[in-house]
Design a protein that fits this description.
Blueprint lengths: L14 E6 L3 E5 L2 E6 L2 E5 L4 E6 L4 E2 L1 H10 L2 E5 L6 E4 L3
Parallel strand pairs: 1-5, 2-6, 5-7
Antiparallel strand pairs: 2-3, 3-4, 7-8
Length: about 90
């Protein structure tokens, strides 16, 4: 298995951004899972540049750590993008 810190995927090959609201996000192996009721959606965190988290999103510490490992920018945004906070981890 590749080491994410030594061989990051180039930004030009990544998905530009994914937006979520009113979900719970947790780590499942080496990916993230978005949970909304009985529905579970895999999030390809290693192929994503930015995760935009809107109102009602909860993320586990393990999920945030995986974003940091993969070099994913996490943005917390308000409704209609009124407020914006960013977390960049090197």
């Amino acid at each position: 298995m590749r080491d994410a810190l030594n061989f990051p995927m180039p930004v030009s090959e990544r998905i530009s951004f994914l937006y979520f609201e009113r979900v719970f996000i947790e780590r499942d192996g080496h990916s993230l899972v978005s949970i909304c009721g009985p529905e579970r959606t895999q999030i390809p965190v290693g192929r994503t540049s930015v995760l935009m988290l809107g109102p009602g999103v909860s993320m586990t510490h393990a999920g945030a750590a995986l974003c940091a490992l993969e070099g994913v920018l996490v943005l917390w945004v308000g409704e209609a993008g009124v407020r914006l906070d960013a977390n960049v981890v090197d």
